[in-house]
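User: tokens in, sequence out, please.
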């Protein structure tokens, strides 16, 4: 098999994104060559562009795109159980399965995990650890752009595992982007009464369709209103502070949105102690949760999530879109642009 020449989107530095050619060798032992069909944009890639790298995905030069679906083009030596032409979703990480975190069922904390990105491309070579431990079949009939939402769904599933919704409790979700809206769906499904609040009150109709009782701009939330469960889903320092301020005595708070390195959070220690507040956070997910996410996306309950998908983008238009959108104070408007990519020849 000859080398494959393809184009891919690469981060070269903060705000510096380029479409570049790459020559890929045939897949080596354990590797798989993929032809992406659809990939999604999102808050993580925008933060990566803005900050010039990511704590786990890597630093420049960094091939971008970790939410996507592809077809298998070629299999490396030793790869079993897969066939050319199958539609698959690769996870962005593969835990080592041998460290203390993995042995204690905390794979999201694995320090030796293999991390990978690069779905904004015409062809990608998938590393052997990802093939072995986090490559997933897409359910039949599930559109590739919908299946690509599995990364976000899996992140929320991991968060819900750490701070599950409870029937009859009052929950507040700060943020109406895709992650906040997915939190809304799962908390409402557990029987919580969910209020969604965001700076601009965006996505209110979809929040209500996904089970929220109220969806409103943050400034319209009564100053005295407190909640039993608060989820911060924006990744902004002021939202972390707001989450603490909105916690009722005995509340649980999931600080879900990641902040830049070196960020600091002020906590009223008196409230933390005497009101028995439980602060937690959740990062990433386990490969099994990615499989669970794909299964959930194929159910009728996930149908409203299609509205999380925004307008299509061509690969050649993506670098300028990423730079422009990452520079906006609010990021993008709560939907995920769909990067359309060619199917394999």
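Assistant: Sequence out:
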């Amino acid at each position: 098999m000859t080398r494959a020449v393809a184009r891919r989107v690469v981060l070269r530095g903060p705000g510096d994104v380029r479409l570049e050619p790459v020559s890929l060798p045939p897949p080596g032992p354990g590797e798989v060559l993929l032809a992406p069909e659809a990939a999604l944009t999102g808050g993580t890639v925008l933060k990566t562009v803005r900050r010039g790298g990511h704590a786990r995905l890597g630093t420049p030069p960094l091939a971008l795109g970790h939410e996507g679906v592809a077809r298998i083009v070629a299999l490396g030596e030793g790869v079993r159980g897969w066939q050319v032409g199958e539609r698959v979703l690769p996870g962005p990480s593969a835990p080592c399965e041998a460290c203390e975190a993995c042995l204690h069922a905390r794979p999201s904390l694995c320090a030796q995990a293999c991390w990978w990105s690069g779905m904004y491309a015409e062809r990608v070579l998938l590393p052997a650890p990802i093939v072995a431990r986090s490559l997933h079949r897409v359910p039949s009939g599930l559109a590739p752009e919908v299946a690509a939402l599995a990364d976000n769904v899996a992140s929320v599933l991991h968060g819900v595992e750490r701070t599950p919704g409870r029937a009859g409790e009052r929950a507040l979700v700060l943020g109406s982007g895709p992650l906040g809206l997915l939190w809304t769906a799962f908390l409402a499904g557990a029987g919580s009464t969910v209020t969604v609040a965001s700076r601009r009150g965006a996505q209110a109709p979809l929040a209500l369709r996904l089970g929220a009782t109220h969806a409103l701009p943050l400034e319209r939330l009564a100053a005295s209103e407190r909640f039993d469960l608060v989820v911060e889903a924006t990744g902004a320092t002021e939202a972390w502070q707001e989450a603490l301020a909105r916690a009722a005595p005995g509340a649980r708070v999931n600080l879900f949105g990641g902040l830049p390195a070196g960020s600091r959070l002020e906590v009223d220690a008196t409230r933390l102690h005497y009101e028995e507040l439980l602060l937690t956070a959740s990062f990433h997910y386990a490969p099994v949760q990615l499989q669970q996410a794909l299964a959930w996306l194929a159910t009728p309950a996930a149908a409203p999530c299609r509205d999380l998908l925004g307008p299509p983008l061509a690969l050649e238009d993506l670098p300028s879109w990423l730079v422009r959108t990452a520079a906006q104070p609010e990021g993008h408007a709560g939907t995920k642009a769909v990067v359309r990519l060619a199917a394999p020849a």
